[in-house]
Design a protein that fits this description.
Elements (H helix, E strand, L loop, with lengths): L14 H54 L7 E4 L3 E6 L2 E10 L8 E6 L14 E3 L5 H5 L6 E8 L24 E7 L11 E5 L2 E7 L2 E7 L12 E4 L12 E4 L7 E11 L2 E11 L4
Antiparallel strand pairs: 1-2, 2-9, 3-4, 3-8, 4-7, 5-6, 5-8, 6-7, 9-10, 10-11, 12-13, 13-14
Length: about 290
Amino acid sequence: MSNVENTSATQGFTLIELVTVIVVLGIVSVGIAGFMRGGVQIYADATEREQLLGDSRFVVERLTRELRSAIPNSLRVAQDATRACIEFVPAQWVTYYTSLSVFPDASNKGRVVELASNSVNYAWQAGDYAVVYPTKSEDVYGATSEKRREILACTTNMDANNDGNPDSDGNCANENGVSHLAELSFAGSFADNSPASRLYIARNAVSYCVANGSIYRVESAINASQTLYSSGSLMAEHVQNNLAVDTPFVVLPASLSRNALAQIKLSFMRNEELVNYGLEVNIANAP
């Protein structure tokens, strides 16, 4: 009896075939990875460019809007080798007066038109200032200025509508949505009348400063001397202005032929993406 040995044929890949497949897959993978990396980089560049444009547009638009609400002739600039600031005093409220204590009148009183339900929801606070006929920045910031007086009190206990019923709230609040007069008590008489009988109410000063490659916004008291700030509320980053040779803020005073102008020149750069802004903001000169 003969022994019969059963053998099974084993099928598989040879070493050469495996190496060939690995090489082909490697080449394909490198190509696909390069294509995907390029697409990802394009997306990242577009995202960073959009973020840079968004951030820069935000601060420029915010600064422009705030400058347009500034009290006339309150803009001033200061700069050194590392910081540059533009400062202004925003008008909390603008109104007209029907009577005003002007030197040598020592009554220190004035009556102004108060509009009910004002859109900015302004309400008088202790420490607010009245500014009348400012023709230069010193009139707004000067500690001894006779064109800026602190408002000591505000009352509306007068018969504004001449109907025999005095307004009795006594705190300058709007009464039943009706426009009425308000009587202000000042810390002194004013130097001049406004040609248009216009009165501005101020509360604080605002500065926009370029420092350390960023733009900061700072609210402060109204001081005679301007302060250069290196920090505050961060408004934008990646600022590329070279303050040693570049001036980001310029104020051109009003003339007989035009209003005051604020020139803004800002540069932003991120990952070699450069955005330059150059614009002029017209400041209404109606003191």
